[in-house]
Amino acid sequence: MTEENVAAIEEEIFQIRAKLAELRKKKLEYEEEAQKYYEKRESLHARIREIKEKNASTLERVAQLRNELAELRARLDEVTAKINEKRSQKEAIHSQQVAENAKGYTGQEIFRKIRDLEQRIETDILRPEEEKRIYDELRQLNKLLAEVQKREGVAEKLRELNNSVAPLYEEARNLREQIKRKKEEIQAARETIQSVKDLIMQLKPEADEYHNAYLEARKKAQMCEAEEILLTSRLVELQEFVKKRREFELRAREYMMKEKIKSKAMEKLSKGEKLSFEEMKLLFEDDSAWMSATGKSKS
Fold first, then answer.
1. CA triplet 137, 138, 139: central angle to 5 degrees?
2. Which of 35, 71, 266, 277 has the most CB atoms around it within 10 Å of its CB?
3. Which of helix, strand or coil describes residue 105?
4. pLDDT band at 243 (very low <50, low <70, confident <90, very high)
5. Are 122 and 84 in contact (CB under 8 A)?
6. Who contacts 94 (Cβ-Cβ below 8 Å, separation ≥6)?
7. Residue 106 forms beta bridges with which residues?
8. Contact, 179 vs 72, CB < 8 A?
9. Could you give the CA distance from residue 44 to residue 202 in angstroms, rounded to a whole number?
10. d(C-alpha 254, C-alpha 298), whole Å
11. 148 to each of 80, 142, 230, 241, how far by Cα in Å?
12. Is 39 helix (H, G, I), strand (E, B) or coil?
């Protein structure tokens, strides 16, 4: 191999070292970039987990509210059944009445009209003036009914029924209020849950974006590392070759130097000149050169 070839190899070694330095720098940049996106992704994931944990407590609260609502509805059904039972008893009493009042109404007819008006107040959404008119009519009908009942001898029984049903009406009203509040609380909790879901849906694409950027940067760093391994392998191969070549050249120069010294020593011997220690040593180490110079064997 010529010196030009060795120089070309050394130039390639120089280029590989420069390329390796560039690759290591780029790999470090990609690793730092990947770490940055990894931390951002993990930060968002931690925030999403925190939001989900808070949302879980809201879901538990909704389940609790639903159970409480079911209990209230069950109790309202019981109270309503008792109210209906009292109404049936009152209707049974009125069904026995046959007398008619001055306007031609029986006690049962007056009672049914009162019941219809009461149900309107309980179930319909009324304007204030309409509600006032109905209450006025109820007062007149109750007064009229009392007169009929008194004449028919059922006023006391009805009074007892009315007294016993009044607390049930109050309890039913309270239960309906509680049910209304529970429904409002459940609706508010549902809205909170939905807002949390919406927030998570907003954060997830951003987290996915950071994840994809992290994977891309990591892939680039791995590609740099793979190329670095290949170049390092090539560099070691070339350096080993140049090392062996230099060692060979060094041995060749040493050989040529020794041969030159031995040749000069033999020339000096032929002239009868005194040899140096190094010249003598080199001649003595070479059997053929020693025999040629002295005509004698070392033994």
1. 90
2. 266
3. coil
4. confident
5. no
6. 106, 107, 108, 111, 112, 154
7. 100
8. yes
9. 11
10. 24
11. 28, 10, 112, 129
12. helix
Across the range 137-147, mean pLDDT stands at 83
- Closest to 93 (Cα-Cα) out of 153, 165, 167, 168: 153
Q: For the residues 71-85, what does the mean pLDDT come to?
A: 91
Q: Note the pLDDT of residue 30.
A: 92
Per-residue pLDDT at 96? 58
d(CA 56, CA 193): 9
- Residue 185 half-sphere exposure, CB side, CA atoms within 13 Å? 17
- The arithmetic mean of pLDDT across residues 148-160, rounded, is 69
Residue 31 has pLDDT above 90, yes or no: yes
Cα angle value 290/292/293 (rounded, 5°):
65
Cα separation, 87 vs 116, whole angstroms: 12
Task: Give the C-alpha separation, 26 to 33, whole Å.
Answer: 10
* Helix locations, the chain, DSSP H: 3-95, 107-123, 128-152, 155-270, 277-285, 287-294
Tokens at 245, concatenated: 């070549």
pLDDT of residue 229: 92
Q: Which tokens in the block code for residue 114? A: 């009162």
Encoded tokens for 298: 């070392």
d(CA 99, CA 151): 8
- Spatial contact of 290 and 299, defined as CB atoms under 8 Å apart: no
Intra-chain end-to-end CA distance of the chain, in Å: 41
Number of C-beta neighbours around residue 180 at 10 A: 11
- pLDDT at residue 5 greater than cutoff 80: no
Q: How many CA atoms lie within 13 A of 111 on its CB side?
A: 24
Q: What dihedral angle (degrees, nearest 10) is formed by the CA atoms of 72, 77, 80, 85?
A: -140
Q: Which of 91-105, 209-223, 258-272 has the lowest mean pLDDT?
A: 91-105
In this prediction, residue 33 carries a pLDDT of 93
